[in-house]
Amino acid sequence: MTRPEEVPLVEEPPGEGAWVDVVPVRRDGSGRLVAVGLIRTAGVDGEERWTTIGGAVLPGETIERAIARCVGETLGTEARAQLSPPPPLGPAGKPLHTRRDDSPLQTDQREIEAPLAVEIQGRLVPHGAARRFAWFLVTALPVRGEVSAAQWALLADFLEAQGEPGLADRMRQF
Description:
The structure is a single chain. This protein is of the alpha+beta class. 20% of the residues lie in helices and 28% in strands. It is built from 3 helices and 9 strands. The strands form 2 sheets. Strands 1, 2, 3, 4, 5, 8 and 9 form a 7-stranded mixed beta sheet that branches. It has a two-stranded antiparallel sheet with strand order 6-7. A hairpin with a 5-residue loop joins strand 2 and strand 3. Helix 2 (149-161) runs antiparallel to helix 3 (165-173). The radius of gyration is 16 Å and the shape is globular.
């Protein structure tokens, strides 16, 4: 697990306006996704909804450093984040399932790239815009009204990319 200051800066950072969305994950012994972590925030309409952790990539920052910084800013200075290993491979050595569409989603005049799976450790203390943090079994995610439409689509794509196409398809039906 890394702190932002432990991740080196690079000469060629991601492009201007880059954004990271991260989804804390828990996996079982075989590497299969079991639970995801979401934060509860108030939207511009004043309604509280569940969402992913995210933020802009700052100039000179790597994606890994941006992830560590965003998790720390959202869940406290003791929270540690690390990119999660990819989902398990099938018999042919290929991922069990890959996304059909790798294009970014459009929402509220900004692009949200596909969210990244991260493992988190440490004492998690939501602060700032995050009112609460909770783990959800992938089979028991919050209902659609508790998550914005853009985040709902983003989570469906995330589940599909993590090898859960059936769950993703069920989310898209609602």
